[in-house]
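Q&A log
Question type: sequence-to-structure
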Amino acid sequence: MTTATAELLTVPDVMARLKVGRSKVYDLIRTHRLVSIKVDGCRRIPADSVGDFIRRQIERAA
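Response status: OK
Response body:
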């Protein structure tokens, strides 16, 4: 992942991609299962982090 070109998602974007609620997204961030940054107080999640999370979940299920 190149930091300069990483797509940053909002919490609602991640909610839609994972089909989960707001509190679940913040729980994933709090437990370090999703990487996030703050930009002027706004939480942003790199799209690569969401993809990595999904891949880890698929591998665990297999």
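Response note: The radius of gyration is 11 Å.
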